[in-house]
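chain below, 233 aa
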Amino acid sequence: MKSIIPVDRSIIPACDVSLERFEDLIRETCALDKIGAYKIGAALALTTGLPSLVETARKYTSKPLIYDHQKACTDIPDTGTEFVRAVKASGIDALIFFPLTGPATQTAWIQSARAEELSVIVGGHMTHERFLSRDGGYVDDQAVDKIFANAAYEGVVDYVVPGNKPDAIRHLKELLLSHRIDPVFYAPGFIAQGGNISDAALAAGARWHAIVGRAIYEAQDMQKAALSLASHL
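prediction:
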C-alpha cells in the first residue's frame, strides 16, 4: 500500500476547530511543503459532517485528510464494515484506529478498511497521565505491545505514538522492527501537552509526522506558527 504522506517528515494540523476556523486553517497552511496532511476529529465531524469538511478542504488542497473518531475500532468486529464504508464515502483518505477492545475487532476493522482502500493508522498508547496500569490507569501495561504486534502481523506500517513520551516511542519502534515493520509514526502531545518535537524526532527516526493542534490554530499567524514548528522536525 502506498504511503499516506509522500514526504518522510511533516506537520499535521489537528483541526479541532469550528468550520470557519477549519477553512482558515486549510487556506493559510496548505501551500507549505512541510504540511503533510490534516487530522479531523470527532467533534468537528459530528457538528459539520465529514462530507462537508472534505468538500471545504478540497477547495484548497489535495493533501491527505485523516479522520480520528476518538477512538474508532472499539466496537464489535461486525460493525467495522459499515463504519469504514461511511468514512470512505465522505472522501477521507485515512483512519486512525485504537483497538482497545481486543484483537478480534482490530483484525476485522483493519481488513474492512483495506477492502474499502482506506489507509489505517493504528494507535494504542495515549498522551495523558494515568493511562497504563503502572501509572494508575485501566489499560494493562502489555496491551499496547499486543496491539502493535497484531497490527504488524496485519502488515500495518503507520502508527500513532505519544509525542510527549519519547521512551515509549523508542520501545514501540524496536518492537515493530522486531516484527519486520519499518514504521511511520504519527505523534500528538506537543506544546500544550508538554512534548518536545525535537526529542520525539530523535526517538522516532527518519519517518514521522508531528500532529499539532492549538499551537497552530490558536496562533494569530497560523502559517508562521506551522513553519516554526516544522523547523524542529
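The domain at 9-230 is CATH 3.20.20.70 (TIM Barrel). The mean pLDDT is 94.
thats it, cya
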